[in-house]
């Protein structure tokens, strides 16, 4: 793995949090745009440099105010891929001794 160079940065839209708005009696879906904003070669994760992907995050119906939602969040993890690796996700890339980076996007629920 290209572990001598730490994984580059990613950018997300939204950048700091996800907000779901009431009512919560039906399923809501929110899209997060994730961009490999680094110029590293090889690319970090399975996204080539400057490539992006849309990720759908869903919120199922729930009783607002009756469940603890204080720790709800979406966590994005990324790492460098091995040199010459196919562009197919492999969980073992995250289980070795290479550096893994994380970005947490807290979820906020508006009444």
From TrEMBL:
Subcellular location: Cell projection, Pseudopodium; Cytoplasm, Cytoskeleton
Xref: InterPro entries: Ig-like_fold (IPR013783), MSP_dom (IPR000535), Nematode_MSP (IPR051155), PapD-like_sf (IPR008962)
GO CC annotation terms, alphabetical: cytoskeleton; pseudopodium
Major localisation: other
UniProt keyword list: Cell projection, Cytoplasm, Cytoskeleton
Key word Cytoplasm present: yes
Keyword Hydrolase included in the entry's annotation: no
Function as written in the Swiss-Prot or TrEMBL entry: Central component in molecular interactions underlying sperm crawling. Forms an extensive filament system that extends from sperm villipoda, along the leading edge of the pseudopod.
Protein's UniProt name: MSP domain-containing protein
């Amino acid at each position: 793995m290209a572990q001598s160079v730490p994984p580059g940065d990613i950018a997300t839209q939204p950048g700091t949090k996800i907000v779901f708005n009431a009512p919560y009696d039906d399923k809501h879906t929110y899209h997060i745009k994730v961009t490999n904003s680094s110029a590293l070669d090889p690319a970090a994760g399975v996204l080539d440099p400057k490539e992006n992907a849309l990720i759908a995050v869903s919120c199922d119906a729930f009783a607002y105010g009756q469940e603890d939602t204080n720790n709800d969040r979406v966590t994005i993890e990324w790492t460098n891929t091995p040199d010459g690796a196919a562009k197919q996700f492999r969980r073992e890339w995250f289980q070795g001794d290479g550096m893994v980076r994380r970005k947490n996007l807290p979820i906020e629920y508006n009444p």
